[in-house]
C-alpha cells in the first residue's frame, strides 16, 4: 500500500466527518428548538440546572416577540438559559437575559454598524472576543459577558476611544448624560498612556439647532445612519480615514431635516448637542415631567425638563405607537416661545383703544355684563388649536347655557362632520401605517403637517418599498413618491379607474388613504370625501381587519373638539356675531366680524387674536396645566403641569367656570374630575387615557350620498411654515431662526 | 543680574519647549471643502465625449441596481480627465451618474489618498514613506525633490508641472526606495502611473529634469546593475536547474 | 540663640526701642505669641532661604537639608492676622505645591500681558458684599421686578 492510498483514505475519513457534522448540528438544533420536546419531559429532566441564578429581568423592558414559535432558539448568557427568536443578535439576547451590554454605535432603530467595538463579549469556542451587536445568536451559544477577557477587551476599546477624546467634561453639555462618561466609569483607566497630541477636528455648522464640537466625536456613525435612514436627508457622512476620520458634510450645508434634533439624543458623546440649550443647565438640575406635545395633531410623548419656573428643554419619551423615540424639531425647540409674549394680567381695552390691566373680578364682570346684552344667536365661541378637551367642554356648556350653539374649533372648517368618528381620525393608527403597502396622500403633506407620521411612512417605504401617490400642490418628500395631480379631478380619475396609479392601488393588500385636514376648509369637502370613499370601496380599503381610510388632522385640539361635538350651528355665524369668545383662537379670520362685535380673547400668548380683543383673559399654556388631548389617531393623552403659570394666569376651564358664575349661569362642576365626568357623558373615549379608541363604525358605508361634484380648484398647502403654526411657536425665537434659515423658499 | 535673569529665562523657555510639538502630516488635504474660484459646486463639470463612452463601459460592468459600485473607477476617470485632481463639482457629477447622494461620493473620495482633492502638478511625484523605503533613505529623496523643485510637500511648482506627495507602501519594498510618477499631462488617454525604483537623491533630480524636457525615463529599477527585482550583478544563488519537489509524486514512492 | 539676641540688640540700637517694637509687630512676632501656626512658621524660618516675595508681600521660604522632604517649601503670609491659602497668587502656587521648580518670579516673566487679571483672594464667609447672588436673588440689590418670562406688551395705539 502506497502513501497515495493512505492519503486518500485519510481524505475519505475527513470527508465523512464533514458530511456527518451538519447532520449532528441539525439534530442538535432540532432538539433545542422543538417546543414539544421542550415542554414537559425535557423541562422536567433539565429542571435541576437552574440553581443559584437569581431571576433576571430584561433590560429596559426588552420584550421578546416570537413571530414563529418554531424559530425559537436557546442561548446561555452567563449560564442563564434564555429563549429568543432566530435572527436576534447576541446583544439582544443578552438584553433579554437582563445583561446590559455597553455600546456606542449600536442603536435599536438604526442599522448595525459594528464599528465602536465596545460591545465585545466572550463566546465559548470563539478564539476572539465577539462584537455582540453584529453577531447573530446561534442555538446553544454560550455567551459570557463578565469574564476577564470581555472586561479586558472593553477596557482596551475604551482606552482607544479616550485617546483622542478631550477631557472637557466640565464644560460639555452632555456631562451627566454621556454614554462615554458612564462607561468610562466602568471600563476606563484613571490615566492614559497616550503621550502624543490629541486630535482636533474643525466644528461643522449644522444650522441653528444642533451644536457641534467635533473633537469630542468618537465616530460611532449613529448620526450618519440616523440622517440617512430615518430623517431621509443624506447630508452627513464619514470623511477621511484613520485618525483623520471625521463626521461632516464636506461642503458647507445645514441640516434641513425636520427631525434633525434627534441626532442630539442619539449622539453618545457631546459632539452633537442642542444649540438653544447650550450652557443653560445641567441635566441633574432638571425636573422631568412626562407630558405630551400639542404643536401638531400627533401628540408626541415628551418629557418637559424644567428648572424652577422655566422650561429648559424638551426630550422625547418612548411610545412605540405614536412617536417611537423621535420628536420633530418643532416639538423639541419651540419651548422658548413659552417664555415670550405671555399674557399675565387680565386686560380691558379702554375707550381710547388702549389696554389696561385690571383685576380678574373687573374683567369677568365686564364680560358677563356684555354677554347678557346680546342675543343668544349672536354669541360665538371659537376654541383654539391648543385647547384641551376640558376647557372646550366647559366653553361649550357655558355658551349652550347662554343659549348659543355657535361654537367650533379652528381648523375644523365651517361645517365639520362630527357625526362619525371614523370620518375624522386616523383609522389605521400611526403604528398601523407600517403594515400598509400603498399610500395615497390626498391634499396632505405629512412632512410639514405631522412630521412623526411622515417618519412612519418613510420607515414603511424604506422597509417594504411601499408606493406613495400624492395629490396636491408640489411638495417636498423625503421618500420616493408619485405626484399624481394637484386637484380633485385626479381623485375623480382614480375613482373611475382611469388613472395609471389605480392598478397599484387595487393590487395593494393594505392600501392606506390619508386625507389632509386642510380640505376641511373647502366648500366641496363632502364631495371630496365621497369620491375618496368611492376609491376606498373600489380598492377594498375598509375591511373588518384593515381600515385604510384616514384623516390626518393638523391641530392638537381638533380630534377632541369633534369628539365633544363642537360644531357650529350655521357656517355664517361669525359675520353676524356680536359677542365672540376666542379661547386661544389666533387663526380665525376676525376681519369678517362686525365692527361693533365684542371680542373676548382668552389665551396665553399675545398673538394675532389679541389685537381685535376687547377683553383679554390670561390662561395657562399646556406646560402649566392638566388637560386631555386626543391625537389624530384618536388616542387620548393628558398633559401634566411642569412649571407654574405665569403672572395672574389661570387654567382655561377655571376661567370659564368663574365666568359662568359671574354671568349667573353656574356650570355644574368645579373640579377637574367633575368636568371629566361631564365629558364621560359626551365622549367617553377621551377618558381612556393613553389608549387608542378605534372608531366603532366605518364611514364608507354609512355616510349619506353626496350628489354634487367636487370643484376644479386644486388642493392648497395646509401648513405654510412647518416651524410656525401656533401662538407658542410664533413667539419662539428659535423657530423664527429656523424658518428663516431652513425653510425652503 | 540682568544677564542672569535673561539666562534663566532662556532656560525656562527651553524647559517649556520640550513639550511634544503638534506636528501632523497628512498626505491628503482637508476633510472638508472650502470654496475657491477654481473649486466650488457651482462650476459646471462634465465628462468629455470620449470619456462618456468609457463611463458607459464602466457602468456596464455592474448590475443596474448596483450602479454605485462604479464610484471608484468613475472618480479615477474624472481625476485623470481633470489633470490629476477632483473638484467638488466633478464629485457631484459622478454622484449624479451613479444616482447616489453626493456625500456618499465625498466619503469615498476622502477615504482614498489616491484621490487628490486639491490641485496637483502635471507630474505628481509620490514618494513612498513606509518603513523599508524609509530605512533605505526615502526622506533624503523627498528632501532632494523638494529642494530641487523649491516647493513644500503637496505644493505645486510655479509652472504647474510638478508636485510632490507622500504615499504609503506601494509594494516595491524589494527595490526600495522608490517614487511614483503619475503623469496627468495628456489627460486620461495618455495617463501613466510609473514606478521608479532604486532611486538616489541624484537620480530623482535627473528623472525630474528628464520629465521636464518631455522625455520618458525608463521605469522600473534605476540601478543599471539590476534586472527588475533581481540581485545586483546577476543571480548569485539558485543558479542550477531547479530540483523537482521531494516526495510530491505520490505514485513514484 | 545668641545670634538672635545679638540681632535684636543690633536692631534696637539702629531703630530705637519704639521702632524695634513696631518692627516686631509688623513682622508678626507679637501675634505669633498667640498664633501657634505663625509661631511655627517663624521658628521654621530660622536658617531657611528666602526664595522670593510676591507682589502682595507673601514670603516664600525653602530649606533643604535637615527638613523632611515635602515640607521644605512654605509661605509666610503678608497678612499676619487674617491669612489663608487663597492669598497665594497662581504664579507661586506651582512652586509652593511642588508642581514646578520654577519660582513665581520666573513664571511671571512668561505670563502674557493680555491675560493680566489681577489675582484676588477668596472672600467666602467674609460678609455678604463679597458673595455673588444671581439675578433675581433676594439678596441681589439690582433689578427687583425681574421675571423669567417676557410679558406681552400692548402696542401703543
Looking at CATH, the homologous superfamily of the largest domain in chain B is Glutaredoxin
Largest interface, chains and sizes = A-B, 25 and 26 residues
- Strand tally of chain C, please? 3
Number of helices of chain B: 8
Determine the structural class of chain B based on helices, strands and strand pairing: alpha/beta
Helicity of chain B, in percent? 25-40%
The oligomeric state is heterotrimer
> Which descriptor suits the 3D outline of chain B?
extended
Order of helix and strand elements from N to C terminus of chain C: HHHEEEHH
Structural class of chain C: mainly alpha
GO molecular function (chain B): 2 iron, 2 sulfur cluster binding; metal ion binding; NADH dehydrogenase activity
GO cellular component, one term (chain B): mitochondrion
Family (chain B): Belongs to the complex I 24 kDa subunit family.
Protein name (chain B): NADH dehydrogenase [ubiquinone] flavoprotein 2, mitochondrial isoform X1
Explained architecture:
- The complex is a heterotrimer of chains A (745), B (253) and C (157).
- With 745 residues, chain A is α/β, with parallel strands linked by helices.
- Chain A folds into four domains: 69-146, Ubiquitin-like (UB roll), CATH 3.10.20.740; 179-337, Alpha-Beta Plaits (2-Layer Sandwich), CATH 3.30.70; 347-417 and 558-692, Rossmann fold, CATH 3.40.50.740; 421-554 and 696-717, 3-Layer(aba) Sandwich (Dimethylsulfoxide Reductase, domain 2).
- Helix content of chain A is 28%, strand content 16%.
- Chain A contains 21 helices and 29 strands.
- A seven-stranded mixed β-sheet of chain A has the order 14-13-26-25-24-15-16.
- In chain A, helix 10 (360-373) crosses helix 18 (652-662), helix 11 runs parallel beside helix 18 (652-662) and helix 11 crosses helix 19.
- Chain A is globular, with a radius of gyration of 30 Å.
- Chain B is α/β, with parallel strands linked by helices and 253 residues long.
- Chain B has two domains: 34-113, NADH-quinone oxidoreductase subunit E (Arc Repressor Mutant, subunit A), CATH 1.10.10; 123-221, Glutaredoxin.
- A five-stranded mixed β-sheet of chain B has the order 2-1-3-4-5, covered by helices on one side.
- In chain B, helix 2 runs antiparallel to helix 3 (71-81), helix 3 (71-81) runs antiparallel to helix 4 (88-98) and helix 7 packs parallel to helix 8.
- Chain B is extended, with a radius of gyration of 24 Å.
- Chain C has two domains: 7-46, no CATH class; 48-139, no CATH class.
- In chain C, 34% of the residues lie in helices and 8% in strands.
- Chain C is built from five helices and three strands.
- Chain C has helices at 2-26, 29-32, 36-45, 90-96, 104-110, and strands spanning 49-53, 59-62, 73-76.
- Chain C has a three-stranded antiparallel β-sheet with strand order 1-2-3, with helices on one face.
- Chain C is elongated.
- Chains in contact: A-B, A-C, B-C.
- The interface between A and B is medium-sized, with 25 and 26 residues.
